[in-house]
Amino acid sequence: MSRPHPGPTGGRPTDTDQSTRPTPATAHDDDWRGVAAEDREEVDRRVGVRLQARSRRLLRSLLRPHAAGVLLALVLVVAENVAQLAGPLLIATAIDTGVPAAIAGRPGPLSWHVGGYLGCALATAVLRHAFLRLSGRIGQDVLLELRKRVFDHAQRLSLSFHESYTSGRMISRMTSDLDALDDLLEMGLDGLMSSALTVVGVAVLLVWLDQPLGLTVLATFVPLFLVARWFRRRSQSTYRRTRTTVARVIVQLTETMNGIRAVQAFRRERRNESIMDGLSGEYRAAHRDSLRLVARFTAVVRLFGNLTTVVVLAVGAWRVAHGELELGVLAAFLLYLRKLYDPLDELAMVANAYSSAAAALEKISGVLEEAPAVPEPARPIPLPAPRGELRFHAAGFRYTDHGPLVLPRLDLHVPPGQTVALVGATGAGKSTLAKLVARFYDPTEGAVTLDGVDLRRISDADLRRAVVMVTQESFLFEGSVADNIALGRPGATRAEIEAAAAAVGAHEFVSALPEGYDTHVRKRGGRLSSGQRQLVAFARVFLADPRVIVLDEATSSLDLPSERAVQAAMETVLAHRTALIIAHRLSTVLVADRVLVMADGRIVEDGPPVELVGGDGRFARLHRAWLDSLAPAEPSAPSGLAEPSAPSEPPPASSAPPASSASADTSGRSGQPRRDNANANQAAPRPAATP
Ligand SMILES: Nc1ncnc2c1ncn2[C@@H]1O[C@H](COP(=O)(O)OP(=O)(O)OP(=O)(O)O)[C@@H](O)[C@H]1O
Ligand SMILES: [Mg+2]
After folding, report:
1. Is the C-beta atom of 640 inside 6 A of ligand 1?
2. What domains, with CATH codes, occur in the chain?
3. What is the pLDDT of residues 489-540, one digit of tens each?
4. How far is the CA of 64 from the centre of ligand 1 (A)?
5. Phi and psi at residue 635, in whole multiples of 5°?
6. Element (H, E) at 397
7. Protein residue closest via CA to atom 24 of ligand 1
8. Exposure on the CB side of residue 239, measured as CA atoms within 13 A
9. What is the reported pLDDT for 126?
10. pTM of the full predicted structure?
């Protein structure tokens, strides 16, 4: 097939990818993209402006579908405020004209005023109700959409992103950051609109009522505006710090809880406590700083309000005394003045919520800006009936931009249906190679192809159907055993599920569980042993029926009889499939058609196990060491491929060690095979010899 390039959708070099991994050339300009600026509390102006613009873009995109609703909410809140504002005006005219008329025996005007006030009161209630319902709905819809976006996006982000970002930070984005936005939407829309409208309306009315007094009041807005600007600047960095520190607390919490076994096993509680104390202390300090800021700001606003009232009262009274102002107007003026400063207080709270939400949005928009390192192709090449031919074309790979080259230019061809065992010392790159086949990562250079198609050009659905990887850590999700097996093929019937379990030898233990296949496995399958979890994972693969199977030490938690049962099952499954098996046990390796010995990311030996054992390479050495280790215990080697499983030293197919053989370590890291006595004593009859 044509040379696969990392196409426009094929991997890193997409435009947006730079957000994940800025290249040195663009590093300066783009060093704020994605989550890069997340840990910075102080960002320079240029970056700050861009971060804010990004948050606003996100907010706009969230609000756009609700444009009509937002407009209606605006109308409602304006109407409500008009009704609200009419109140004092009616009181003023009632005092100045209605009351004198009533005293003069004409109750008409006064009752009009009273009726008008009643109407305004009712209208305010109805409009307020409608507004709150509408704005509440919009707010929650926006949050729902954002939560969905973050979750969906996070699931698509690559392993490498999650490895460095950690689940704790993701959790804090989804919880505390969204809460901050929730606070803003809840009180913000309401508070901002009604307070802003009130302030403007009142200001106009004040000037209209009495110009000199009105202008005096407006003059106080200038220092107020300066104070507000100061507050906004300061609160931005404070709230950035709050969001960052609360995320650190959550990260520490999730890591401790996820590793609670290790924490208790290694008595790490004290150490964790002191780390947590430190982080919580930082969070408290950051939050305290923001509250201090709010305290100063609101106090200043209120002080301005009250001082203005004093001035208005003094000047107004003086003018009333001199007959320049009517008493009613002064009363209305003072009432309005109160109405001016109450919403200013509220505006301060909104500004506070806004700063907090803006910092949260900054972080959330950063996560959303991250591009998946293994994106789905825009125009995938369909793979309706994969054959399972794998090829590495000069594939190079490094985990991080400046990290070491873990796989340097690897060339490999695995024909369809071949079972390949990968062996080599720890850190040789076996799992890395396997992860490239399953496309958890894309190669940094070169390509990996399936049936001649670059994996980057295959849709996720096709790829997941064609290639399944099972690792040592078989992950089970909350739910029943049956649910977990059915993950392999959603929609499988109960009979198919049970057949798959029976095929890998899991049926027996599952049936023995209190509720059989409906038994809840609890969090991460905590109710099952690790061997049982692996059997469930195998049943899953059996059901999924993929063309290519990748097993990364997938049988390491099984005892020999179980492993053999799985192998027996796997042999039927593997017969017509391509398989890549990484195992430390000789018996597993011996079922392979071909063994690849890896060292430092390179394939240093390649051939059928029997051939390699006959030579004098690493594999042969490992094999001999393994045989030596068996010698005192079990002198002769009956026919067939017995349980010795390590690639390092599998006996030739014709002279496998006895059934009770040790399970050797294929990694060859010590050259000293590990003996598994417990297992050795209960070795079951070996599976049929390798093909
Ligand atoms: N997520 C990662 N980020 C950075 N480096 C990694 C990552 N995973 C593995 N490496 C590095 O890549 C190299 C190869 O690791 P790999 O997991 O492929 O080894 P392996 O052959 O599977 O070893 P083992 O037998 O212990 O499982 C190692 O040097 C390791 O430190
Ligand atoms: Mg590994």
Report:
1. no
2. 51-369 (1.20.1560.10), 390-582 (3.40.50.300)
3. 888 899 999 998 888 888 888 898 888 899 888 777 777 887 788 888 888 8
4. 45
5. -65, -40
6. strand 390-397
7. 426
8. 25
9. 95
10. 0.71
